[in-house]
Amino acid sequence: AAILASPKFLYVFEAKSDQEGKLPLNDFELAQRLSFFLWSSIPDDSLMEAARRGELTQVEVLESQVRRMLDDPRSRALSENFARQWLRLDQLITAVPDFDRFQVYYSRIGCEQWKFGLQTMVEPLLLFESIQIEDRSIMLLVDSDYAYRSDELQAWYDQPDAPFGEKANRNRFDTFTQVFRKRKLATRREGGVITSAAVLTMTSTPLRTSPIKRGAWVAGVIFNDPPPPPPDIIPEIEADDALMEAKGLTIRQRLKQHASDQDCASCHARIDPMGFALEGFDPIGRWRERYSSGLPIDASGRLFGKETFTDIEGFKDAVLDHPGIFMRAFSEHLLSYALGRALTLNDKPAVDLIAQRVLAERGRFSTVVTEIVKSLPFRHKTGQQQKP
Predict the structure, then answer these.
(1) Are strands 301-303 and 307-309 parallel, antiparallel or unpaired?
(2) Which H or E element spans position 147?
(3) Is 24 helix (H, G, I), strand (E, B) or coil?
(4) Are 91 and 100 in contact (CB under 8 A)?
(5) Are 174 and 221 contained in the same domain?
(6) Does the residue 261 lie in any domain?
(7) Which of 278, 329, 334, 341 is least enclosed, having the fewest CB within 10 Å?
(8) If you ran DSSP here, which 8-state letter would residue 364 be given?
(9) Does one domain contain both 62 and 116?
(10) pTM for the full model?
(11) Nearest to 286 by CA among 153, 123, 171
(12) What are the residue ranges of helices labelled H in 94-208?
């Protein structure tokens, strides 16, 4: 019982030192950190043998081990754990589109009620995994010409009202029997993780889209530049877009009124354009040309202070035209995951170097991982002065 309750059993443990500053990890600590980063598990025999020989501190050996570990099926843990955390996909579990308005999102099997989100969650994870396995550019996470979808999910995108719109066919929905296949996409608006149904659903409210939530997600996840917490008192916005549209207002026009408050204006000016870019998608990620009331959708905006766009394709182009911004943000997210802590200003020189090399290699996935493993923060720990 004492062993099971010990912090050394429950947590990843690195020995303390009475020295201050950055201290190099020994070979066994490096093996442990590397294994938990890429496999979410303990080191294997090969890694431990390299540690015993004192070879892991050699850059060439470290790079070789990274290549071997990425080729190992256990590296799937990186997509299952990091990608899920980075994309915040756990939020999809608690997303509850209004049942009466979005009955096509739900399916009842026996006495159990299933949400279509269980399938949509798989799509961005498989895209991430394919980029990792095939060692392709991480820019495909912004815009890809393929996706992994089940037949049911593909039908959802092609004919959004058909798959589960009638009680007669709703009992066909069973997540665990679906086969996901690589499919060529017909339009650019569907590629990448930003416009996946999972992300679009979890960043909406039950009865309408939320450009604020969607914009904040893009700012935090895609650009690693999250907005500050909202003020304690926030003017209310109608929970149902039908109430706004009955007044002849779109959500964009309503938020313009909301942002006229000086306490709200600065943040909304930064995050709302990124959310408006996604207004072509309804609260459960289906494409729409106009609002249900017939009012036109305005998905235009400005990005990076200078790049203008009129639709989601233009938004993606703006991101792709400045690849270094996303590559740096992704590298920061992955480095934070590898270290198991938030980054600090002291990590900036290492991030600068990682981002520079990733950009030079056009965002190749293995380059991101290798440069993180070779970085000073990954190969060092912070010394802690022991109390006398």
Answers:
(1) antiparallel
(2) strand 146-149
(3) strand
(4) no
(5) no
(6) yes
(7) 341
(8) B
(9) no
(10) 0.91
(11) 153
(12) 117-120, 122-134, 151-158, 167-170, 197-202
